[in-house]
Amino acid sequence: MLVHEAEFTVDLGESGYLIGFTEHDDYPDEMPYGWRCGPAGPSSAIVLPVTDTGPLQLTIQIHDSPPAPETDNTWEPAEEISLLAGTDSIHLATVDPGDVTDAWPEDDRGVRMRLYCHADDPEPGIGDHGERHLIQLWPAPVTTPVHPPLRKEDLLARAEYAANRPGPLADCTTELPVHD
Known about the structure:
Blueprint: E1 2-12, E2 17-20, E3 37-41, E4 44-47, E5 54-63, E6 79-84, E7 89-92, E8 95-99, E9 110-118, E10 132-139, H1 152-163
Parallel strand pairs: 5-10
Antiparallel strand pairs: 1-5, 2-4, 2-7, 3-4, 6-9, 7-8, 9-10
């Protein structure tokens, strides 16, 4: 059942956004090239949108159990990863933490994240691509991620990133209020 939902516009930079249950202060060890999301640590994920620099419509839903899959065929296939919730707050790169204290059981801190993406213009680039994301979170034990198969180009991009991994992130976040 849906416990909480927040919708807002995020102005993206070049590297997508981080979401999770910890404030993340460094680039992930591996970028999820070929996928839309991947772990940035055990408690956070990095999401790679089509939009390089521009607006993205983001909806975050908190559920108390696994939600039914979205049947709207405008979404790309969903991807899922597991996160560990060490806090009761969701952190997003440019948004104040959202309180989710009533959503997680006290004895099970595993959380499943499902990501749906859509872009009117699927070619990566700067500006408004009509991109929107739906992130669904619910309590769940850690399970295998769900992603599309990787191409050879994706594996090469991942190896290049690992060889040239950037240093610590500069603190250039903006705080935006989340309204119900």
